[in-house]
Amino acid sequence: MNETVIDAWRDASQVMTRLAGAWSFNRVIESQGHMQGLATFTPLDAERLAYREQGRLRLLNGTELEAEREYVFCARDRGFDVYFKENPPRLFHTISLSATAGRALSGSADHLCNLDNYQSTYTFLPDGRLVIRHVVSGPRKDYMMTTTYMRVA
User: Fold this and answer.
1) What's the pTM?
2) Are the C-beta atoms of 133 and 146 separated by less than 8 Å?
3) 95 with 109: CB under 8 angstroms?
4) With contact defined as beta carbons under 8 Å apart, do 18 and 28 qualify?
5) Distances (CA, A) of 26 to 34, 40, 111
6) Are 32 and 59 contacting, i.e. CB atoms less than 8 angstroms apart?
7) pLDDT tens across 53-69, in order?
């Protein structure tokens, strides 16, 4: 399906513009714990957004801690690149979006980190939510992490 027109997200070329702002998130780390927090996408310029998340991580063993993460999202034709916020920036993955049968926009990519592989999927749902899923496997890591974002009013 080549059509990329979606109700809440309009089309793939509008995703970066529509991401700007504040989002609450709920993250489930399968068999390890969960996290809730706030994420912001702040424009750096016409093509880039700074992503910052902060939240409370609760592990299944009872440990609780504050956690944060930062990335830089860079616009691409029909998608975006995600970089680790490092100096110099390092590419995490490139996401090319296309429409799904369920009227969502979706894209996926792989990232090899040493010997561990991250398979990531970004799904922009018609109701305005964003779901990011990372399936991580390798000699040191084996888990699935699903984060659901909802815009803060």
Assistant:
1) 0.90
2) yes
3) yes
4) no
5) 7, 14, 23
6) yes
7) 999 999 999 999 999 99
